[in-house]
Specification:
The protein is of the alpha/beta class. Helices cover 33% and strands 27% of the residues.
Length: 348
């Protein structure tokens, strides 16, 4: 039996923090980061198991949809093609409006294409109380009990218990510093914000109408079903910022599954099986007196000797070597390299 809900899978972005393996021609969603299958295949399998293929919608821009087309066709699911990338706020409000048109009063689950979730049965067990809260008019998020003072995730603070068994959310907190993260871990009141949500589609739309000033000029287009104009007029914004942090009836349920956000290379140390020295390696590798490294190689054999705490990636004719703690800042470093390279070009 499937859950009586639709599922929107957010699959936009190319995952620049997984360069050089992730590129516009082969974005992160198509990489086997968590196992032998591409991330999008794992995610679609979960979504189909939850709600059935006819009620799954992948949300991404046309170039990404075409790259993922073999996976979509194999899973038997449809896509909602974004005319323009504007962040998760416009994407989910638009997806909710399309789902509401298809089935008025429908419940809706939102999840990302780059998460590791195990097992899928525990995801279903978690979403059942989340959907009960959604039926009561809550915008419900799935929170994950922290097991470390993580500074790379957003947090939410839980409050009193709602009648559905979910807990009301007092506030959301963006990625904290180390001291604040340790405080949140110790308090027991804070959960990681997994980015998995459940709501009635119409409740999200109405909450966005009240709270999301970034979409103020785009509502007439949404009501007409004009996606092109809606995305042209909407400001780029995350759903957490424009709705969840501002709305009144927000609740959370605690995840019963193992979860991780595969956002940076260092996450592979948690997502992949590691050797006895703590190395996660993909491809042809030899490691000697090396510990706590991430090694990914696609066309060469990588021999790693006497180093620790590195990310080493060979892909697409490029080689990346950096300290593991620099992984979260890779996108910014690449942008600086691109800027410096363009500023050093001789004038034409």
């Amino acid at each position: 039996m499937h859950l009586e809900a639709y599922c929107a899978v957010l699959a936009g972005g190319i995952g620049r923090r997984f360069w050089p393996a992730s590129t516009p021609a082969r974005p992160k969603q198509l990489l086997p980061l968590a196992g032998s299958d591409p991330l999008i295949d794992d995610t679609l399998a979960r979504a189909v198991a939850l709600v059935g293929a006819p009620r799954v919608r992948v949300v991404a821009a046309e170039p990404l949809v075409e790259l993922m087309r073999p996976s979509l066709d194999a899973a038997g699911v449809d896509a909602l093609v974004e005319p323009k990338a504007r962040g998760t706020g416009p994407a989910l409000v638009w997806a909710a409006s399309e789902i509401e048109r298809a089935q008025p009063g429908a419940l809706m689950i939102s999840m990302h294409a780059d998460h590791r979730i195990e097992p899928v049965e525990a995801l279903e067990e978690t979403l059942q109380p989340a959907l009960r809260a959604a039926r009561e008019g809550y915008l419900c998020c799935v929170g994950v009990r922290p097991d470390r003072a993580e500074t790379g995730f957003g947090y939410l603070e839980t409050g009193r218990e709602a009648t559905s068994g979910a807990r009301e959310v007092r506030r959301f907190v963006e990625k904290p510093g180390p001291a604040r993260a340790r405080e949140y871990l110790k308090s027991g009141r804070f959960l990681w914000n997994s980015g998995i949500f459940a709501w009635r589609a119409t409740d999200l739309i109405e909450a966005a109408r009240r709270c999301a000033r970034e979409l103020a000029g785009a509502w007439p287009a949404l009501e007409r079903g004009d996606a092109e104009e809606f995305f042209a007029r909407a400001e780029p914004v995350a759903i957490d910022v424009c709705v969840m942090e501002r709305a009144q009836r927000v609740a959370a349920v605690e995840a019963r599954f193992a979860w991780d956000d595969l956002g940076v290379w260092s996450a592979l140390l948690r997502a992949r099986q590691v050797d006895e020295a703590g190395n996660a390696s993909v491809g042809s590798t030899r490691l000697l007196d090396a510990a706590d490294n991430v090694v990914w190689t696609e066309s060469r054999r990588a021999t790693v000797i006497g180093v620790s705490g590195l990310v080493i990636v060979e892909a697409n004719g490029e080689l990346l070597v950096m300290p593991r703690e620099e992984a979260a800042g890779l996108d910014a470093r690449l942008r600086k390299i691109d800027t410096d390279a363009s500023s050093s070009e001789p004038p034409r």
